[in-house]
Amino acid sequence: MNLEQYKKAVEQLNLYAYHYYVLDDALTTDEVYDKLYHEVLEYEEANKEHISASSPTQRVGDSVSDGFTKAAHLSRMWSLEDVFNSEDLEKWLTKTYKLDKNISFYCEPKYDGASLNLIYEDGILTHGITRGDGEIGELITQNVKTIRSIPLTIEHKEKIEIRGEVVIYKEEFEKINQERAKNKEALFANPRNAAAGSLRQLDSSITASRNLVFLPYGVGENLLEQKLLSQKMDYIYSQGFKKPPLRATCSGFEEIEAVYEEMNKNRDSYEMMLDGMVIKVDEIASQIDMGYTVKNPRFSVAYKFPAVEKITRVKEIILQVGRTGAVTPVAIVEPTNIDGVVVERATLHNFDEIDRKDIRINDKVIILRSGDVIPKIIKVLTHERDGSEVEYKRPTECPVCKSELLDEGVLLKCQNLRCEARVINSIIYFASKPCLNIDGLGVKIVEALFNSGLVKSVVDLFDLTLEKLLTLEGFKDKKAQNLLDSLESAKGSEYWRFINSLGIEHIGEVASKTLSTNFGSGFIDATKEQIVACDGVGEEMAESLLEFVRVNRDTILRLQEILQPLEPLKREEAKENPFKGKSVVLTGSMSEPRDKIKETLESLGAKIVSSVSKKTDFVIYGEDAGSKYDKAMDLGVECLNEEEMRGKIEQA
Ligand code: IVH
User: Fold this and answer.
1) Which residue from 181, 199, 96, 190 is spatially nearest to 140, judged by alpha carbons?
2) What domain range is 603 assigned to?
3) Do the domain assignments include residue 368?
4) Which residues contact 304 (CB under 8 A, 6 or more apart)?
5) Is 44 part of a structural domain of the chain?
6) Does ligand 1 come within 6 angstroms of the Cβ of 297?
7) Is any atom of ligand 1 closer than 6 Å to the C-beta of 164?
8) So what's the pLDDT on residue 109?
9) What is the mean pLDDT of residues 266-282?
10) Is 414 helix (H, G, I), strand (E, B) or coil?
11) Which of 224, 276, 308, 410 has fewest C-beta within 10 Å?
12) Average pLDDT of every residue of the chain
């Protein structure tokens, strides 16, 4: 490699990285990138005097400092005034219009992370400074250089301060915390703390390992001539920075409200955490006229999203027993309104979680509710303890049937097959969508059927009659007949549904399909050798199946007689085609129901799996494909849209 080639290679690497980290749209594979990177590294080792400031090798996080020095921002970093509802927004707008009538607004997300000021001189990143008190922050340039969405060099040559927020994507945050839990380290309470903590590491290799992302939101000192902030921001993005997931210019109240609604509605689907929307006067001249109060710019405001975190108190810890006997603890908290929903319980996952977070009854805690997920406790306010808190003792007996629990460490299990909770939950599972898909068997009805003594196991469901059902409170002719009809329609279902509905531990939908195709009703006589010979079925599954059949043989046969599930047609070995024997993931919305596409591909001999890994052969994506698609791109898995998929099918 000569100097000329070296410069070209650095440029090429930066282009690859820009597409990968900024545009989320990889141009090549890791392998190609790594090879070129090593060639560049080799050249640099032999020609130290030629090392380019923009070389990706200059990002390596291997410096360890013994403290950060302070550094002054070239111009002050301000903070924002908050508004929380449309009335406050209207007031802010009235105030602002009084200063200047002819203005429009630039809206973008308020990212929840740590703010950072970047100084570029002569196109080279020279300083990365934390916000600090707004005037002076800490110099963390080495750490900042490890962040791949921050260009080391830009085309713009005049001195400029580029400001933005450093965030950790939600998925990455979960991963970091899982890893920390495994290593018995304290968990980060939220992505914001994780981002701030990762930025201020003395060992920059830790910062480098955290996959931080930089999202620019403005400029400090600059000589840019654009008249509108929106144009300045477009210019900044063009220098190699990431764009927000949503931005808009608005003329006034109604348009601002509409963008806010949209952003709030979609906030769960964005990769980063947002805590609101920032509204800024778009005209730079007007911004300058309006100026600042002691704390905040007058031309900008943060319109916060409804809180998803609230402080409440743990009143009690109750136990739930699932169909497999697994006992899960749930915290009952003082009812709190979070974003319009009254939250009364929070999941505790398992007993280790209670120990790890040291959650005690009567503790004040912060709970998080986001999207449709079950609220969880993210932090215990231990400094607010007053001695009234009571440590939680692991139960030794089933809260429902009182039989002794099996302690498996993280999990506690009720082993009594007749335990009421287990029976009720197995009936609900039996009727659920991926099983026999029987309408009208929700929690309330199943409990009523069980408590009345009419149904003690799934087999009893099929002895129900109109007369029997009419004895139950709330059951009139129509409701009773509907239930009988849907029970009737469960007969003659696909065979795999029958296997799945039995609720055999470790055997889910995919394994049920495999067993069904391979054995049909013969699955109860399959030997261990035959079972493990099936694709994707391991020892643990085989043992669980054999044990289940041993204990429940009569019930299985009886149910089979009642339900008459369809014996699967021995699938003709699919003829050669691009999907035969391949592992395929479907994601996003398609023009046909997902199940139909699944069926087509399965008939071609493909195996449909739910998550993307290195072993995945194809990802077929529809509209609004999300993280599975991204992961496939990361791993270099071939992605096909629906049309490309059909093309391949037709070729076959
Ligand atoms: S503008 C001129 N825009 O929120 C005003 N700030 O209280 C300077 N933040 O410290 C801030 N997203 O760290 C602005 N789109 C955004 C932002 C944003 C997050 C943070 C920033 C700042 C704080 C303001």
Assistant:
1) 199
2) 583-651
3) yes
4) 82, 83, 84, 110, 275, 276
5) yes
6) yes
7) no
8) 97
9) 93
10) strand
11) 410
12) 92
